[in-house]
Structures are given as C-alpha cells and as structure tokens.
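dumping this here before i forget
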Amino acid sequence: MSALPAGIYLVLDADVCGRAGHRPADVAGAAVRAGVGTVQVRAKRATARELVALTLSVANALRLAGPAALVVDDRVDVALAVRARGAHVDGVHVGRRDLEVDDARALLGPDALVGASAALPEHVRAATGADYLGAGPLRLTPTKPEAGPAIGVAGARAAVVASGGRPVVAIGGLGAADAPALRAAGVHAMAVVSAVCGATDPADAAARLVEAWDRAAAPAVTR
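structure:
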C-alpha cells in the first residue's frame, strides 16, 4: 500500500490534450515540474496497445521531471504491461464497473497504489481496501458526461467523513478557485482535467493550481 501525494492530482486525458494540441507526456512532465503530485493516465478511446505506449511515454516523462505518483485509469493489464517493460507505475484507479479493489491489488502487489471512485458515502464505505477515494463529480463536465449527478462540496465533505481517514480526491469541473473550499472540507487532493490538459499553457495552469492549493488553509475535519 502506497501513500497518495496531497495537492493537485492531474487526470491526464489524452483526448483533451489532443484537442488542445498538446502531447500528453509533455503536459505530464510540465505539470510535475510545476508541483503536481499525481498523474492518472486516461485514454478512453485508445486500444490496449495505444494505452501501453501512452503510459510508457508518460512514465518516461515523469522519470525526468521529478517525483510523482503515476496511476492508470481502469486498466490493470496496462499497468502490468508497462511495468513488464521496465517503467515505473504506482498503480491504478478503478471505477465502480472495473475490477474490484482487492483483485487489482492481488494482481499489482501489496505495495500498489489503488484508488476507487466513490461518489456517495455508501460507495465510500463499500470501497474497502482502497488507498484513496475519488469523490465526484462536484460539477458536471463534458470530459465525463456519464459520471452521474453533481455532488458539490457538501458531497465531498460527506465522502471525507465516511472515508475512515483515507484520502479523498475531489474531481469534476474544478479550478484554482475551488481549493479553499475543498481544503476546508478535508479533501486530500484536487483532481483536474481540462484546467491543465486543455489550457493554452499547461505548465502555467498547473503552477497556478499548485499555488492556490498551497495558499488555502487546511483545518482539521471533525468526524
């Protein structure tokens, strides 16, 4: 079991990067150099081979950019294939229709970082064994229209309360202005997609997010 870095968590969406004219590995490297602590590789329309190649390129970029956690969205097989080629992958993030958390950990090993999507408190409590929990969407977004109803900051706070002390990552239409409210709610990390992948200057966008997170107060949460 590995620890999830606090702060800004980049969901590196290959489609969003492509529409903005960015190479995903370049965005990942720039974001990590700006202080982003976690990168999750997501490419919903890619083949398995394409996703392996993408994840390899991102892993190589992070190796040069500095320390950061790297997880693959959904695909345990891809994480294993990339590891088999000698690149470092910390783990996976699984949704509620993907492999069970325990199955993912059994395949990747006890030290793998395994996150689980958990929109509602009952989902949080059911995701036993997950190292961290993804709560959202806080707002509806075009990058994942099937994600379900928006839960808002109140929903993120409820996920924190139900988490039993495990880190909660908020996601869904978030930007720098959301950092104070999310830190006040006890959220461990703030996941962004378009705010970095779709930005004209991803490095500058990532730096602004990191600065906003670092400036925001993080009071203790009453459970």
